[in-house]
Amino acid sequence: MFSFFTVKEALTFAARLRLRSSDEEQDRLVEKLLDDLHLTKVQDTECGSVERKRISGGERKRTAIGVELITDPSVIFLDEPTSGLDSFKATSIVNLLNELAHKKGKTILATIHQPNSEAFMMFDRLYLMLDGNCIYQGPGRQAVDFFSKCGYPIH
Fold first, then answer.
1. Vertex 101, ends 107 and 147: CA angle to 5°?
2. Where are the alpha helices (DSSP H) in the chain?
């Protein structure tokens, strides 16, 4: 994202580059994404940069996710979409991803380091690794019981 673009301009730019539909259809899609990503209130605010803060970290992450969603992919790969965010904003990003998976039928694959317990419980499937090896694969809600049965209770 260019730091001098507004949130809406960033999404519109991505639409113009990546879609073949009419400008009107692209504009409707941008408006829908702004609404779905809860970015309507900041749509006319510059994205900014690390040096020039304009929108919050969570808004910046959601804008970046929106740029990827512009083509309506069925599978979305995200590398640490919650890094650098406080607990509340990180949970809201995980909640957004959960909604995309459940309501829009998207498959979301994301690496997330040290999620808080509320965000953790939103994960449908986990693949936990240690030293490059899988130590757990299964439903998120069953991980605590699994580790307790293995002698590693989680409090």
1. 80
2. 7-18, 23-36, 57-69, 87-104, 117-120, 143-149
